[in-house]
Amino acid sequence: MNDDLDKLRQDLLGQVRKAESLEALDEVRVGALGKKGRLTQLMRTLGQLEPEARKAFGAALNRVKDEIADAIEQATGRLRAAEIERRLEAERVDVTLPVKPEPQGRIHPISQATDELVAIFGEMGFEVAEGPHIEDDFYNFTALNIPPEHPARQEHDTFYLPERRDRTRKVLRTHTSPVQIRTMLNRKPPLRIIVPGRTFRADHDATHSPMFHQVEGLVIDRSTHMGHLKGCLEEFCRAFFDIDDLPLRFRPSYFPFTEPSAEVDIGCSRAGGELKLGNYGDWLEILGSGMVHPKVLQNCGYDPAEYQGFAFGMGIERIAMLKWGIPDLRTFYDSDLRWLRHYGFVPLEVPSMVGGLSR
User: Fold this and answer.
1) Cis upstream peptide for 260 (omega within 30°)
2) pLDDT tens by residue, 190-206
3) Domain residue ranges of the chain, discontinuous segments joined by +
4) The whole model's pTM is what?
5) Cβ within 8 Å of residue 301, ≥6 positions away
């Protein structure tokens, strides 16, 4: 029996040495150590032997089994190394070939619209001003002549932070107007700034978001008047929407921080249920504007008898939706790459009045 076992050992070791692939080696393993393998079958015959013979043959069988298993493991390592060598030889990289193009990112419409705003107003002599998202009540409301009982101060419209020790609360800015106040408090006229940035209000639907973007403009000088405001906004709207004869209409309105105040409409058509901008006889409200209220000037240390100015503000998402035909505001923040590939912009096409804006 031991002679037969030694022959089996030699046969199996020979098969291991002859295996030229991992697949062939695995067939040897199954044939020797699998459920129906030759060594496994011999293990099942141990019960038919006398105790002393079973003990001796079992020990010899285990030694052969361990030797075959070690040989298979070593052969596996050798064959895997050989396989890697073959792959490395076959998969050499030709460094002279051009680089494989990577998927190109896209500029978000909010960023694109902001860049276009900056380009247009920059040509008019405006500079960009920035400020914090978390504001004191003074900058966000009081200095802007917004009275304590105004609905904009209520919890249902504004995000407040927890009370501080002095029982006052900071607020997530509801508009970018606090940056105008900070600028006026820190600089002397003349001023000509725009303030693009994030704002926050407790509202959420297809046309409103709890976080959205606004751009506001401010001009302060000794001789600024309503005609300057009208001309500035006409030039902006026609440049941004790329419509040379786009009509604008100024309607009297009310804002606590401007007097007189005006809502601004642009021409459009709603024929057939499709909104189209242009000189078609219908109107669409787009932004608010007005002459800076004398009390706001006083709150910032300016003499209303010497200085006056105008201000305006609009939602960046709103004008982006109108320009590029985006139907739902919520899709701006869905992080959907398919949406961004469709509505996004090539990164290197930086908008400018010289190079052109997006179409």
Assistant:
1) yes
2) 999 999 999 998 877 66
3) 2-90, 109-343
4) 0.69
5) 184, 185
Phi, psi (deg, nearest 5) at residue 144 = -90, 15
Beta carbons of 176 and 114 less than 8 angstroms apart: no
The number of beta carbons lying within 10 Å of the beta carbon of residue 348 is 7
Q: Provide the pLDDT for residue 205.
A: 66
CA distances to 227, 243, 258 from 189, in Å: 19, 33, 18
pLDDT at 53 over 80: no
Beta bridge partners of 264: 250, 287
CATH of domain 109-343: 3.30.930.10
